[in-house]
Design a protein that fits this description.
With 277 residues, this protein is of the alpha+beta class. 56% of the residues lie in helices and 16% in strands. Among the domains are: 55 residues, no CATH class; 66 residues. The relative contact order is 0.04.
């Protein structure tokens, strides 16, 4: 005969007892451990099923969005290829009338659909891109931006000596800037690490320096009377200058407030210290 626990008096009683012989609570309000466990397992199962369904819906929606985008791209390309002669005719008219805006838009469509090799489209793209890049170079002063444009020009004109010559000093300048940026990054990282190391020397509770506190206590008449007041410090690079104010009793039993200055290293060791007048 299984035993259950009465939720009122916590006594173990027979599962058939009604009411509880100890406190009189009706059997209907006494929870069976097996029933509680079954209920908990049921809740966990429902939560697991809900999580799986939610994940499946999320993944299905993401996959559906990707598939939809791919279908649209494929449909757009199919329509473009079906009318490629008309697109090319529009490109020729725009080029003949020097309508750069329309020509650039049509060239972008050829580029997007991978059709730059169609007839003389690639040559026309090189012409318009060259004009655009040279126009931008008249106003762009940043070495990295100028370098990217000259390198782009070289993809269209690989044998152009002027473009090749312009790239050499710009690449050298770009390397110099990259090296400078890397040095600055390393210096910033080292400074952050050093700052963290310095701050780790001090107590998170009252801001004192444990090593300096220990050294000062060792020289006090009554070390047990030591009471930290405040600590200030200055990062000196390889060492830390620490000024600490504290209270304690002197040889006559009176409470006095004093200050000391100490020099500690980054490992927490006290190199020297002295009382301040």
């Amino acid at each position: 005969m299984p035993l259950v626990k009465c939720h009122e008096c916590k006594s173990k009683i027979s599962s058939l007892a009604d009411p509880c012989p100890h406190c009189g609570v009706p059997r209907a309000s006494i929870a069976s451990p097996d029933a509680s466990k079954s209920s908990a397992r049921g809740c966990l199962l429902l939560l697991a099923i809900a999580a799986i369904v939610t994940s499946w819906m999320f993944l299905s929606r993401g996959a559906g969005t990707t598939a939809s985008a791919e279908r649209q791209a494929a449909q757009f390309k199919a329509r473009f290829l079906a009318d490629i002669e008309q697109h090319y005719a529009r490109l020729e008219r725009a080029h003949a009338t020097n309508n750069r805006a329309v020509a650039s838009q049509i060239l972008q469509q050829f580029r997007t659909n991978g059709q730059l090799a169609y007839r003389d489209v690639k040559e026309l793209e090189a012409k318009y891109e060259t004009e655009r890049l040279l126009s931008e170079l008249e106003t762009v002063k940043d070495p990295a931006s100028r370098l990217s444009r000259y390198e782009k020009l070289l993809t269209y004109h690989p044998n152009n000596e002027e473009y090749a010559a312009a790239v050499v000093p710009l690449r050298a300048e770009a390397r110099k800037q990259q090296e400078l940026a890397e040095r600055q990054r390393q210096e910033k990282q080292a400074k952050a690490q050093n700052t963290a190391r310095v701050h780790s020397q001090f107590s998170s509770w009252d801001g004192s320096h444990p090593g300096l506190v220990k050294a000062v206590k060792a020289g006090m008449h009554n070390p047990e009377s030591f009471e930290h007041v405040e600590t200030r410090f200055s990062d000196q690079g390889e060492t830390i200058s620490v000024i600490m104010k504290f209270r304690g009793t002197n040889g006559f039993g009176g409470v006095v407030t004093q200050s000391v200055i100490g020099l500690v290293d980054l490992r927490g060791s006290v190199l020297e210290w002295a009382y301040l007048d």
